[in-house]
Each structure stands twice: as structure tokens, then as C-alpha cells.
Amino acid sequence: DQQVKQNSPSLSVQEGRISILNCDYTNSMFDYFLWYKKYPAEGPTFLISISSIKDKNEDGRFTVFLNKSAKHLSLHIVPSQPGDSAVYFCAANPASSGGSNYKLTFGKGTLLTVNP
Amino acid sequence: EAQVTQNPRYLITVTGKKLTVTCSQNMNHEYMSWYRQDPGLGLRQIYYSMNVEVTDKGDVPEGYKVSRKEKRNFPLILESPSPNQTSLYFCASAQLLSYNEQFFGPGTRLTVL
Fold it and tell me: Which of B10, B35, B37 is the best residue to mutate to test the A interface, defined by the most A CB atoms within 10 Å of its own CB?
């Protein structure tokens, strides 16, 4: 059962426009969410994160929005650049519940292509 | 340079022949983890380690073993590889207090015939 879902395998946008990547989750115990970016032939790199106590986190051109009631988060990239073309993974982990839980659950990824 | 290294980067082997993929990090990180990436399935966690001699199963541990005898190294062992373990494997490390923000290695492409 996929607990973190990225339903769009791919997304294509024009340079300078906004890219919006979506992620849904089913586990209500998740309380910390992240986005990772992956270029071909490289390992993923951490991009941005958000705690469940917030609904928005911004870092330069990247903003992550969290809607807990809808169990939905999104990554906005404004303005999009050709160098942003990569696979973007959404990830989540649950709050500790009386013990430690160091698992991280990833979605399947969305391939973003930014056209010049 | 801070990095996570994996060896080998590419490996073709046959069913049943034991193999080890090494992972090493030079950032003094407590947390290390192994993932596999498969088409249509994304990244799935195999095993992770919170510190030396402390390991735990991820979501897909079957057919794999790990050990953490030293802080910097976290080898992945396939005792009897099978074709369904053909995959792209990533090792990652992080500070334990911020384990969600992981540094990944470049990946190991494994093919089991």
C-alpha cells in the first residue's frame, strides 16, 4: 500500500512559469515532509522540508505547502528554470510514538521537464 | 569534500553468488540507510542504522543483510542474490538529530542474471 503518492509521473512547463508538484499521503501519523530532487546518474539531494505544525515553508524559488486536512502537500517552483529539470520525490516520516522511528517513506517521483 | 561513496558503481552477477556493496561516509554521521530504486516504485528503504551496532528494517528488507561495525561504513550484503534484486541501490547518511535530511551516494547499478 503506497502511503505517499505522487500521481503525476511527469510534468512539463515553460521556463519562467510556475511548476507545481503534488503529493498525497494516507498515513495520518506522518508529521514531517520533505522533497528531494534527483538528476540522472546522481543520488537524490535534499531540497526542502516542512513540519506538520506549519502550512508553508519557503526557500528562495521553492515553496512547500501542506494541507493536513486534505493530507496533501505541494512544491511550487517559481520561476522554473531548465536546471530544475529532474525527478522530484516527496517523502514523509511519522512522529515518534513512545519510541524512535527513523524510517523515511518516499513517493514514486515526478519527472519535471522545464523547456527553454 | 563531504561525501558518501559506494562501491562498486556497477555490478553484473549471477543468481546465488554472494555479494557486498560497500558504503562509506566522511561526515561523522550517526544515521545511515540503504534504498533501492525501481521503475514505477520510487525509492524504498531497505535497512537503516541509527549508530554503530544499531540497525533496523526498512520497508523491503527481505533478501538483504547489513552490519554497522564502524561509524563510517554500512555495507549491504546479498547472501544469495536473485533476479528480483536487480535494481539501483543508494546509500545515504545523516546526522541523527536531522536524519530526514540525508546525503545520498551516487548509486550502485546491480544486475542479477
Answer: B37
